[in-house]
Amino acid sequence: MKFIKIKSFFLFTLLLSSVACKKKLEDLYQNPDGYSKEMADKSGVSVISGFFTSQLTQGFFLSGDYGSVYHQVRSGDRIMGNAIQIYHTTAEGSAYSLADVEHDWGTGGFNESVFNFVNTQWITPILWAQREYNNIPAGKRSNLDSLYITLMHVLKGYAYQRATDMYDKVPYIETGSAGGLDGVKAKYLGQSDIYPKIISDFKAADDVLTNLTLSATEQASFAQQDILFNGNFLQWRKYINSLRLRCAMNVSEQLPSLTSQVLADLAGKPLLSDYNDVAGVADIAVIAPSRICNELGITRAYRERADDCRAGKKFLQDVMNCQPTVGSKVVNGQTLYYFAGDNSTTGLVNGTVDPRVSYIFSPDWSGRYLGVDTKWDGGTDANSYFNQIMRGYYINDPILTDITKTTFYYGKNNSQSITLDDASQKDLSKREAFLLKTLRSKCANYEDNNWNVGTENILVAEYNVRPQFNFALKYPTIHAVETELSLAEAAVRGFGQLNGAARDHYKKAIELSCKYWYDLNVSNQYSKSTLPAMPSTMDDSRINTKPAMEYNASAYAEFAAQKFDAMSSTQKVQAIFNQLQLHYNMLNFEVPYTAARRLIKYLGTNPAAQYERFKWKEKMTYPSGVQASDPDGWAIISPTNNPDLPVWITGRTAKWKNTLE
């Protein structure tokens, strides 16, 4: 991995500060005495450019953040089911009783992180830049000054979009205002006020970039400061217009006319459209390599949340068409069903199984791509989905018919074993039940991987470590796949058709996602001996095994599009959401979460893979400290500080409830 080439001393100082000590970064850019126009002049850059580059490096903004990602994976998966915690789906793991993510360990960070960030790190550099810009006489503002402040407005709009999606009402500072730096207090505004403002700001920003021309010298300076798109105007315009589209779809339940207006306005405008069109910064660009996996990077979150890394049945079977092959056998007079394998071997080649099966996920130790359901499996149904997975391991083993065999061997090279208890050793009729119970317990309690991701004897499919632990991965805050899916939904629901029919966008989204995940997988050059390094607990077979080939994404996308053609409108919207959730999975909880909440009204049900035993959460709750620090603000937000209260964009007043609620 090559580091970003830095020619500007100013930017070099920024990056060193961010990798060595976050406090230094804050002192240098967020403290007005730490950075000045005089320093900028000596560095040969605009004072505003410093705040711009600082903004791009803010934690959990355009890059990942260990703490925030950890909580979004842990608690977010309990809401959305992006990945499966088996112990919450089986009797061997926990009781079948209603639980929430509001009061268990660690969820303070889950509830509060976005709110805290938007009111501190995400906004502070923008306000300092705005103040500097406001202090420059209009006639002396350079092209770069205008460019940087315009892009800062874009970044502010993106910050507020994320925050208002999570909380509805947040302290909002108008574009053009330096806020508290000039004695102007932020006002608590909700989605109904914020969304029209930021949609308008995005349009204004695209207009500026459309008409702005930089000199060669200015362009070179911009490229040095822009660690997001390397000074590429077209990429910035794609990003801005795709954010407009995201916002337009988010308000479609409440402001459908605005949604349609934005679709019409975007005609002829560039949008994110390529597989590598992603707005995000890689950990390795802003964190010292030695600190990525074990300390500061998002991969630490994945390593510590190995129990979340199980694959979901929804993705593998229901979305990606990877179907188990079912066998049956009569044992003790009862017909028992089991999964002998799956259809991936032929389906990946002939275009009937999604190529991402082999790019995003790893099979169990026997080569089966079988995921786990979020529905409860209490063990009372002999032929439940989970039982059929576990039974497939032993049902044809001689141990069920040969009284002399008392140990069942399984795993890679038969490295794992189960010894029968005394009763089963003496009685063949008791062996099937004993083996099923033992394997269920091992899987539910993560004894097959010892709570480590990337081990070789896993009993169900897991996320593949090659793309997830590709340290060059740019955290996908927005991606071309989302843009294509938004255009598909807009066409299905009648908000407007842009650049093709819904089918075209749905098909292209799948093709782009396949290419994106294939590239993340095969481009990973890291190992246990590189810097940064793969975790030592991973098995080399998991680290080094790439897909057998790049499968024909176009063939599969056409297969999926033909199924799409036969669907009703609501089925199509559900399918579009499924692709969105699959594509972002553990990398981006927020976007599918917002989409799920707003689609409940249209679909009449929750499109996410909801756990039965976790309460659905309609919004994040505010930090308790707001009451003491801002009593006036608390008076505004406290009446709606309720995780059961739907946010405005959903168009609902009633909470969605799962099976146990």
UniProtKB/TrEMBL annotation:
Keyword set, alphabetical order: Lipoprotein, Signal
Q: Which PROSITE patterns match?
A: PROKAR_LIPOPROTEIN (PS51257)
Where, by residue number, does the polypeptide cross the bilayer? none
Q: Where is the signal peptide?
A: 1-22
Task: Report whether Lipoprotein shows up as a keyword of the record.
Answer: yes
SUPFAM superfamilies cross-referenced by the UniProt entry: TPR-like
For this entry, the protein name equals: SusD/RagB family nutrient-binding outer membrane lipoprotein
Organism per entry = Danxiaibacter flavus
